[in-house]
Amino acid sequence: MKPVEPVRIPDEETVARWRRDFPILRERVHGVPLVYLDNGATTQKPAAVIAAERAYYEQTNANVHRGVHLLSQRATDAYEGARACIARFVHAARAEEIVYVRGTTEAINLVAQSYVRPRIQPGDEILVSAMEHHSNIVPWQMVCEQTGAVLKVVPIDDDGALDIDAYEWMLGPHTRIVAITHASNALGTLNPIARLIEIAHARGVPVLVDGAQAIAHLPVDVAALDCDFYAFSGHKVYGPTGIGVLYAKAGLLEAMPPWQGGGDMIRSVTFEKTEYNAIPWRFEAGTPNIAGAVALAAALDYASAIGLEVAGAHEADLLAYATDALHAIPHLRMIGTAKEKVGIVSFVMEHAHAHDIGTILDQCGVAVRTGHHCAMPVMARYGVPATVRASFALYNTRAEVDALVEGLARVQEMFAL
């Protein structure tokens, strides 16, 4: 068997060609070219995605399912075709295992209320990690308040890596679900998710994976991972806002009651009784974000054509380059230094608040994210109120990292660091 060759880092011309696909990267802010390093919050959209959404409204717009006229049939075909595209992208066994939601947050809430809440008792435990986004904390706290269950938190070390030994011993006889991020939005830590799932399954515990920060950076194979649930948001993977995905094993979905009631999630309704639709439609009450689904499929096709392995190699190179550059800056402290990371660097600077740093960088044309990143427990773990976060995508360059460093030099000047 031939050894697998490492994926080559794309050359500058290849990245320049990718950049030309994104109209917004031609923008100027404050009189200088835009350097967009806020991809952890949302990625920019290629022209193909923008065109797909526009074409839907110009040529196809109609409501889906049950319509007999041509536009409704076109819209239904596009909507369900997008579902099949998403299933292929994450290697789901069936398209019916893909539920459309507004984003990762709604997906986690759906699982919390429809799958976990009916199955949990006082004293049962829900296991999360100390690096979670609020969207993978608050829904579980709500379930605990509703049921008397207990939220348990797996610690992280000073580098931001999960304590695997603690994870193993915290998986006990009362653990009813593990809900854990694939990659941390605040630290960049990439969790060994396949191993974590295997450990949980050996104890009969299902696993939900928050894939919001991983989906654009590495191939996701839900069948190989054997995860029970996987959630992600379209806007994190070059797609539009307001559309997201919950993957769930078909057997789990079949056993889950609907979370919301209304049109399209029913088969028949009388005042005495409602018969619910089959999966996945029983979880998609009301008129869905049809255009968003179509555009998300276009985004996934775009990412697939480039290859997430290739994009990931490029982003890993940027991460290494940026990490070395930031380490060389006096009075700067990196937050999140785990060995395995996606393209995220978070840091603080002495005597300069993160928001002030972000404001100065903005004047230099550099867009970063500042604040607690909807991960307040992470900030508390490191004893900081906020960090500056630069996050990379396939269209970023080393020159843009240099622009970040130059902007930080201006911060040093202004704060006399």
UniProtKB/TrEMBL annotation:
GO terms for molecular function: cysteine desulfurase activity; pyridoxal phosphate binding. This is Cysteine desulfurase. Residues 35-404 form the Aminotransferase class V domain. It holds the Pfam family Aminotran_5. It comes from the Bacteria. Its cofactor is pyridoxal 5'-phosphate. Keywords: Pyridoxal phosphate, Transferase. It comes from Paraburkholderia tagetis. PANTHER family: CYSTEINE DESULFURASE, CYSTEINE DESULFURASE 1, CHLOROPLASTIC.
